[in-house]
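Budget justification, computational time. The allocation requested in the original proposal was used primarily to generate structure tokens for proteins on the priority list. As evidence of use, we reproduce two of the resulting records. The first is shown immediately below.
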Amino acid sequence: MKKIIYILSFIVLLLGSSSCSDFLQKDPTSSPSESIFWQSKSDFDSGLAACYSLVYSWPGVMSEIISCFDNLTDNSICQYDEDTYGKTKTIALGDLTSNTSGFVSYMYNDCYRGIARTNLVMGKLSAYTGTEMTDSEKSRMMAECKALRGYYYSWLYLCYRQVPLVTKTLDLNDMYQEKAPRSEIYNQIMSDYNDAIKNLPDEVYSNSDVSGHMTVSAVKVLKARILLNDAYDDSGNATNTANLDSVVSILTSIKGYSLASSMRDNFVRDKQSSSSEIIFSVRYLEPNITNSIDLRFGAWATDQVTRDFINEFEFTDGKKWGESSMTPIVNDSLIESGSNTNALARAERAKLFVNRDPRLKQTVSQSNLLIFSDKGYEDANATNDGSQTHFFMTKLVQPTTTVPNYSTVSDADVVIIRYAEVLLSIAEAENELNGPDATVYNAVNAVRTRSGMPALPENLTKEEMRSRIRHEWRVEFAFEGQRYFQLKRWKLMGTLVNGAEDPAIPTYIKVFKDAFYYWPIPQTEIDKANGVLTQDPNYK
């Protein structure tokens, strides 16, 4: 457990990109004293901003590199073996130990830094007797802190089997904490989310006074994610009907949102602020808060898309690759082994995009060509570093006619929650409860027809509808940090990921063991806790 000192300085609190060791520092002489800080509303506003800032913390495990979670699935392969990309290239090969860096260490550290900050702000709020804030303002700020603490604990709950439960600011006497049972973490998450829902403003995210902040709808979706995750048993069967029923009830109560005209619109900078679909996002604004998404994924083609993912997309007649009469005859050898600059190979790969679900072009480009579905950029064809699989993710990249470089200023928001998730979550839960009724059909078809795809055929069985829903999850939410946790929820990592390979890189074979369903606690945290914090038994 991280050492968090009560007299944590305001300067350290604000620095969202500061190192973990900053939390060991006492007040530097240049920082505001505890005796004069926490006196005004602006002080508390700054403290709340610091609570949010952890989602930006380099390299952005909850923002900039959230797409790299897909590198741990059957969707893509990471091109670079770096912490910058969550160390997903080697984790996917089965190299997952207590000394693994990347996602394993950053997620743990960033979440506990966020939890420490929310605990500090809430403690100061509870003790505040000044007159600069109304009871309503204090209540809303407390609710935002609880929403954020629940959010950080949700990440920990999904990634690690057991972690410490910390709900107050620690001091030198209790800085090391033992792991709590999963049930206690779950109950704390639910408690924080329930309190937040009661006291947050119930406004749509595009309203300027709540944009960039947690709202009732956002917290409802976050709560539903945990409920849906825990609706499945250890065999991947949806047996917790109470959770499923709650998911449907909570999400159908969300009002004021609708699907954008296209999936892609949610990720194009100039269309995000007015989006009717975005429910929560990590907000960026140049020149002070920018990201490197265009450089990392546009220029460097970090997320190399697999052929299996390409084949997942239906043709415009709603049929699969090989089943549709639109399936082209292609030279697989040329697609797989032709260089990214080979004109014939490029032309062969282009065939895979013809007459397909429009979301394919909105998500992926081929060879080393930056081709976008956005009007005016369809034939831009700027060239980048290329992909070893010959396909790469462009869903989160801004349309451009030139290859991004170190001078490129990127400030598109990272979308965390959007209304399409509400619809597909309702469909999944309702289908598991009652089979493919009208509620299920309406929700899935809304997502499909928005992208110009035909409605689902009638009279599907529950099992057939389950397959269709999971297909929609995959093609609609690729590279948004969802599929890795969905495959874990459905207990399909062993079936779909272990042994997975791409024909263009046949020597790269993914490895997944049952032990990997939860990550190890970083060894550095075990070492500093003097035996109080113990390792997950699968990694001892």
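The second record produced under the same allocation is shown here.
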Amino acid sequence: MKNIKRLALMGMMFILFAAFPSACLWQRPLPEAVPISAGGAHTCIIRPAGSVRCWGNNREGHLAFGELNLFATAVPISWLKDVIAVSAGGEHTCALFSDKTIKCWGENSRGELGTGSRKQSNKPFVVTSVKGVGDAGAISAGNGYSCAVLSNRSVKCWGANKDGQLGDGTTADSPEPKTVKGLKKVKQVATASSHTCALLMSGSIKCWGKNDTGQLGDGTSVNSRKPVLVQGIKNGVQVAVGEAHACAVVSDHTIKCWGHNEYGVLGDGSKQDSSTPVLVQDINNAKMVAMRTNFTCALLLDGKVKCWGNNSFGQVGDGSFHDYILPVTVQGINNAVAVIAGDRHACALLADQSVKCWGENVWSQLGTGFIMYYNTAAPAAGISKARMIAGSVSHNCAVMEDGSIKCWGGHYYPANRFTDSEISEIFLAKGSEIKNAQYIFMGDRGTYFLTSEGSLWNLIYSGDGENDRYEWSYVIHKLEDMKNIVSVAPGKEHECFLFKDGSVRCRGNNKYGQLGDGTNNDSQNLVQPKGIEKAMAISGSFDHACALIPDGQVKCWGKNVRGQLGDGTRKDSNLPVLVKGLEGAVQVSAGGWHTCAILKSGEVRCWGVNGWGQLGNGDYKMTLTNTQVKGINNAREVRVGQDHTCVLCEDGSVKCWGTNDHGQVGDGSFKNTPVPQQVLGIDNAKQIAVGWSHSCAVLTDGSVKCWGSDRSGQLARPGKTVSNEPVSVLGLDK
């Protein structure tokens, strides 16, 4: 969740004064000038009569809804009335009302709500009035701070101030509004991540705060706690601020930009930073400009929109994923009256009051109805008659009743996601000879299929350099030399095999001793972990492996920096070591940095890292020896992910615990939990699987339900995590 804070910037409420500069600073906007504002991953719009609708991320309560969840379509905020301006910040939102008061809600760890306190409410959607600001004419919410233009045309700011972005001459955070020093006759203020700019009535611009890449525009790279004059602009009509750059529309309808230019966000055809304004090329009819992290957009007088800069998530909107150092036209937008930019998405308000958005949709910020993070179990589309399922980092494979295999999902980047969660039989590996699969074994870099005849197949996927973002290579082949295999435990760069005679053999990287042969020498040939003559089951993860031996004990080997070997130490071991104090085990599952086992009694024991509560013992302390999971005495199957754990119980229910930032616990919340919680919507499961941030279950009828992150399509839900062309926001016509 905090990764949104790192990226999230602000929702700048400049629309009143850019698209409609003739409007009085504190005058209620005309109906045709309905404002819209984008935060890091949420968007809000004022509808006629001062009502407000919002969509996107609400996990810090910044949409002002009681349910801390994602909202995939525009939904009304019933209590917001008589609003004349709304500004979406990183993880908070502010509104200006017709009585000139300001109220804010959401995250408050740096005092960005302006209440005079940094106290975080257990109900972050509670709205609070900004202290001491009762005569405001405009509001701008940034990443961790906010600013307001008052009716006397001075500016007050509050919240985060590490780089002097409050402009009060200090670098101390302030939960109370502070007057920006030396600033008078202000027409508009624009906030960002760590610097702020103000457009003056004279047409000049002043900025303050961080200046390491020249984003203050004063010809230097020296931070300033007080406003400094931007060089070369005397006729500005609107200013906008990004994470490390800024732009202004000037009276001749051209645009000038300054600051960081890594992705070409300044639009001058280069990637060179500039501490003074440079002219954006190919635009001479600009009406307003908007920006965010590493891209910029401009509304033109003819209603079209052009964008440029970083385009990894399609936020430039031209139908590609290529970066641009010069402006390109956004597809399908011909009648826009305003444009806004979020961290990785942009939206245009059209003349008919509809809205179209493009770019990243991870947090439902495009408003298309797509939800990427499900905190309750949802059906996997296109999957029926499944016999078993296995999950990896961000994809799953299932063995069907007829012995065929279906796989879905992708890898780390959302552009890799199958369109509309399309299910593909052995994705990118069609025509294989696998027709009678019985078991699947999945690891970080490979997937193994074992057939009923005992043949073993391997699906390997790999990426390289820039192609990691969009394309991966998939190769499937039969392992002719691997006979009599009954189980595979794939790790990050190693793998172990269990044979019919109970012997275990491993190969691959051995930096941490994960081959268990008493050395740290890599081996592409199979080597035997010493001291394991016979095993009943094996399990592997990143850099360690474990084996269940016939007497009900468990031995583990490899990396142990988080106590995942369970021997009471944090010392890596290139020899198998007994899990201390564990007896009567019937199953073992190794995860990222923790391991769990089921006992004959149905209890579950876990050991290793516990920073997110993944050991299930009620606290968050690392445990070097096994500890009992609370409240479970009827476990049938345990599966360990990166930072969460799930158990299938004898009654068909599923319980999970640990990190829950993507809903992978499935209890209807996004809160981490150190004790097991029942997954909502499942009472008849027969088998489970977990990935890094998602979980799945096969039900008794052969259908599959999944929950958690769907970033790469691993939940097989309809929709896209990115759109490189504009799509309509749903819910605005209700």
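A brief technical remark on that second record: The radius of gyration is 28 Å.
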